[in-house]
Amino acid sequence: MASGLDQSETKFNNYVALITALKLTKEGLEEYVNIAMKDMYKKISNKCRGYLDCRDNCSKMHVANFDKWCDTCKKWREEIALYMRNKKRISGVHWNKFESMIWSGGDKLTAINQVANVFVHECRNPMVSVTDDFSSIISLLENCKYFSIERTLLLNVREVRNIYFAHNGTFTVEENDLVKCLDVLSGFLNNRSLQANSKCKQTYKKICDLKLKSKRENVIEISNISPMVYSLMRLHHDKPTIVLERVDDIISNKHYTFVKRKPYRRYDILLLFICFFCYQFIMHGNLTDDIEDKGNSLMVSNASI
Ligand SMILES: [Zn+2]
Asked: CB–CB of 11/172 below 8 Å?
């Protein structure tokens, strides 16, 4: 029978496996969401063709006073609203955060982000990509009619994230709960809308592998994430909310350099040391040669005297 320490270690490892699965899911969805948003943007843009550029940045200047919005921003808002699954949600958008004059800015990332973020519940920054954050992606898939993923699947994914990660200050997960979570995530990635995307398909297979306890030990992503979560827990042992925030950053890749270790870093330092010692050795050799040369010439000159 496993000891208490072994059991808590196993549950912590399960927690890390869940974080890894959420991170993989988020990364697996990025390409699909980006392609979809680019296409939706193009469709809206085509319908708004012929309108002049906005000069007032209406969403910022007039916020919800839509009568004052210019014709261009009115048209864009109207077309964006057609994609809102729940019509009432459009009136809950915090327009002051958005830059409506960017909407018509063409097929640029900033314009696409500004449109896509209208569908993200309580969007904090419309300038950043929706794919930068796990919850934002799920919110977009829920609220935007461009996507037709079953609502129950999305609700289950949100529950997995919230119950077992975001509101879980124990940093542990039971084995049966982990398998249940992985079932939800793999089922979601394998649904009709996502299974045609090769990245989603690859991620689906990776999540399925995580269900097998024997395979988890060899998953490189788990090996990378585990020490980071462990050191965060030690560093902020009395502040679980900070740990959860930092772990959320790991899932969302907000601190990429922190997440991904540089594999050749130590070799770089070693190479630097070798170069330094070679330089010292050569310089020392030159110095010795110089002294010897000077010594020889002194001897020659002494002999000639
Ligand atoms: Zn305007």
From this structure: yes
